[in-house]
Write a structure and sequence with these properties.
41% helix, elongated, 12 helices, 20% strand, 5-stranded mixed beta sheet
Length: 318
């Protein structure tokens, strides 16, 4: 555009003003003057008159309350205060430009990053996205899987940082869970709480099992106070006589599956989490207990993700 100065690339400085910068015109004028050591040279780079530039520097000095330049026959020399401002301002400009770049990248990004691990697959989200794709706006036109290590520490990092590295995952949750991780959730369905066993287990051939049949086997169960729906399942089991033999775990990983296979135990589980181990199959339990399942995401989703969430909400099967 005619009349707008070009961006001048000078070592370690900003600076004739770019299209937009967090660096204001006073700071910009100061940095160019400090680099050029001359009002006239700096004025030419900034496309202003020397008189106007000197006035800006004087206004800056008045606002700060100290002199920034010594005017000498050999040109402009930074005072001690001027040297401090130059050093700090250069860092400010660099960080400011990086900040603007990050903000613009976030605003322009159409990617929805879906978390996936060995046990907690992103397949559910991907299939849902493809089913809704034609109804989504262009702001949600791309989706990609981001793999993360399937351990408790990493899962906690992902959940507490939703919206940065990973935008959304699928899983079981409740209000207490969302409050703990300070995130949002959309329940899409209630999935049956059943059990899974290894292919060689005596129950493997059954199409369903009763609670009484489970009491003959050691049960791997989720620790209490993690998920309300699984607590309710444990209440139902513990009300039985004899009380079942239970082994608690606080995070479902492949090691839990391996331990259950080695001891011919049964894992209290949902269908989506059984697919992680090829030797295990899921069996319904003859009871009405279910778990809330859906999308877990940041409280401040991007426009693309919010569009996806809004459309997904129309698919609710609760």
């Amino acid at each position: 555009m005619i009349g707008l100065p070009k961006k001048i690339f000078l070592p370690d400085v900003c600076f004739a003003m770019p299209r937009f910068s967090l660096c204001n015109r006073y700071l910009n004028a100061f940095l160019v003057c400090a680099h050029e050591k001359s009002f006239s040279k700096a004025a030419r780079l900034l496309y202003v008159s020397p008189t106007a530039l000197i006035k800006q520097i004087e206004q800056l000095e008045e606002g700060i309350g100290t002199t920034l330049f010594e005017r000498t026959p050999r040109g402009l020399v930074l005072t001690r205060s001027g040297s401090v401002l130059q050093s700090k301002a250069q860092n400010f400009v660099q960080h400011g430009d990086a900040l603007l770049a990050d903000v613009r990248t976030a605003a322009d990004s159409r990617d929805i990053n879906v978390g996936t691990s060995d046990v907690f697959s992103g397949r559910y989200v991907i299939e849902l996205w493809y089913r809704l794709q034609k109804r989504l706006s262009t702001s949600a036109s791309r989706i990609r899987l981001i793999s993360y290590a399937n351990d408790r520490r990493r899962a906690d990092q992902i959940l507490t940082g939703l919206g940065s590295e990973i935008d959304v995952i699928a899983g079981v949750f409740d209000d207490r869970f969302l409050s703990h991780y300070d995130c949002s959730g959309l329940v899409l369905e209630r999935v049956p709480i059943g059990c899974c066993v290894a292919a060689t287990h005596p129950l493997a051939g059954k199409t369903s099992v009763t609670v009484d049949e489970l009491l003959s086997y050691e049960l791997f169960v989720l620790e209490r106070d993690l998920l309300e729906d699984f607590d309710a399942a444990r209440d139902a089991l513990d009300a039985k006589t004899p009380v079942p033999r239970e082994v608690e775990f606080n995070f479902l990983d492949l090691e839990v599956f391996n331990r259950a296979q080695a001891s011919e135990s049964v894992i209290l589980n949902i269908p989506y989490w059984t697919e992680a181990h090829p030797l295990f199959r899921w069996i319904p339990i003859e009871w009405p207990l279910t778990a809330r399942f859906g999308l877990i995401y940041s409280k401040t989703p991007s426009a693309g993700l919010q569009d996806f969430i809004d459309e997904a909400a129309k698919e609710t099967r609760t």
